[in-house]
Amino acid sequence: MTRANKVWDAEKASSSDLRQVRSACKEMPAANRQFADGLASSSWPSEAQESISLLVDEVRGDQLAWKELSEVSSEGKFFNPMNPLKEDTKTPDLVRAHLGLPAAEDIEESE
């Protein structure tokens, strides 16, 4: 399942929330593209470049999913999107490790 469905399954969203889903996701396609382009055009240490490239591919892979969510018009399309968001991967942690940074969950736990 996609991350978005976990929200719905947790009963924190309903069909009356579709307008809010569209609104919340409206700027995500452009922001997602800008983030991927920024990663791809930046200079990275050679040891991090492979994991950065993987992250760029993953972010770009969600582009159609964000566009679809920004236009969702029914529960069916929300639950069974043509282009679902990808599940979380370990790629961001690989990037952080190659850059000498702690894993994100380690930072969240310390706050």
Tell me about this structure.
This protein is an all-alpha fold. The protein contains 8 helices and no strands. It is elongated. 9% of the residues are buried.
Which terms would index this structure?
single chain; 111 residues; mainly alpha; 0% strand; disordered N terminus
Q: What sequence of helices (H) and strands (E) makes up the elements?
A: HHHHHHHH
Number of strands: 0
**Quick one: overall form?**
elongated
User: Fraction of residues in helices?
Assistant: 55-70%
Quaternary structure classification? single chain
Radius of gyration computed on alpha carbons: 16 Å
Kindly estimate the percentage of residues that lie in beta strands according to DSSP.
under 5%
Cα(first) to Cα(last) distance is 29 Å
Provide a quick synopsis of the model.
By secondary structure, the protein is mostly helical. It is built from 8 helices and no strands. The longest helix is centred in the middle third of the chain and has 16 residues, at 46-61.
Give the topology, please.
Blueprint lengths: L2 H7 L8 H8 L2 H14 L4 H16 L1 H8 L4 H5 L11 H8 L5 H7 L1
Helix pairs in contact: 2-5, 3-4, 3-5, 4-7
